[in-house]
Amino acid sequence: NAGVTQTPKFQVLKTGQSMTLQCAQDMNHNSMYWYRQDPGMGLRLIYYSASEGTTDKGEVPNGYNVSRLNKREFSLRLESAAPSQTSVYFCASRGGVARSSDTQYFGPGTRLTVL
Amino acid sequence: AQRVTQPEKLLSVFKGAPVELKCNYSYSGSPELFWYVQYSRQRLQLLLRHISRESIKGFTADLNKGETSFHLKKPFAQEEDSAMYYCALLSGGYNKLIFGAGTRLAVHP
After folding, report:
1. C-alpha–C-alpha distance, residues B52 and B50, integer Å
2. pLDDT tens digits, residue range B40-78?
3. Which of A104, A105, A110 to mutate to test the interface with B (most CBs of B within 10 A)?
4. A39 to chain B: nearest residue by CA?
């Protein structure tokens, strides 16, 4: 099992460009998450999907959209990239649906730079 | 407000020295807390969770509700412990996690 995979690994965008970050998991997990990691701020939740067909905003959703394409895939889209969105983006998944202490499994991250 | 505070950005120790990475939380209710670790060029992974009361790689963490703390401890640090450590709090429904800013542990030979 590959676990949680993310593409691309690195990306450089110009201000105003759009792009989609892809995430897939092969663990048959119900819940998936997108975080951004910034120095001195830890990881902050952007969006999450408790189960296939549902998505909800996290702590910092502005400037982003998500799609839970199927149970395996959860994509993050930047419609008009801004320098403030320069960050490392992590996708994670978890087996359960409701509040639980189940482990979240993380992908390797996508390093995005917006010029 | 729900919050996780890790006061140290960097903790630098010598091999064999004791280590304590501090974590304080703010949460109204019964908290569930975790420590995640990110080794160089690797993905974030769960180190331990308080409900399991386990010891992983020699690390332990005890929840102190009176001091609202969940400090991570290891009696004798090893060079391979060098990594970024994040404390996290389970928040609300759907296993949403609130992370602290992280502490980089550097263990020197």
Report:
1. 5
2. 988 999 998 887 777 889 999 989 989 999 999 999 999
3. A104
4. B101
